[in-house]
Predict the structure.
Amino acid sequence: MAIGGVWCPRAEVKDISKSLRALKSLHNAGGELKWIKVSPSRLAFYMDLIDFFFSRPSLNFRCLIVNNKSRLNHEFFNQGSHDSFYYKMYFYMLKVVLKPRSRYDIYLDIKDTRSAHKVAQLKEILCNDVFDFTKQMIGNIQHIRSHESELLQLADLLIGAVAYSNRNLSTSATKLAVVEEISKRAKHNLRFSTFPWAEKFNLFVFEPQNV
């Protein structure tokens, strides 16, 4: 399981989104960008996307990888709820990114129609973690559908590559080439945690505890 996201200054969202749409148009890549749609005919497009991410100083990525999901014990750690675990992992993924003197808008890929209260809890926990009891650090946190955001689609591609590598898959030469290119540009093996302070490309591998 992999949970991740990309982030950038609010002032650059429109320009970055416009550039990503231009790349799609250049490669005649219509529709939504998703890891599951990676195909040999679009390899040059994916390579340009990777280059765009690593060449844009203001774009950053963090991903939390959960290894050995079979060892998860939701009854012991998460009140019997996979959803509680899911949002707990979102907290650990986001807490390294957020700085208490900055203000953030957070957009999550929609999981289901019953998640609104979990999102509200996530905001409260994130703010309390940095003693932001007036809830000023997070301006907005909400679910959106991935087709509404080029940044969310870029995140899906990067998360997909990390998950593919950590699952030790080799079903697609194109996906392997994308994984290899990301690893080369990040100067890091996608199966291992980076230094916690890594900002451009940050990975954290979570190992469930034995009970």
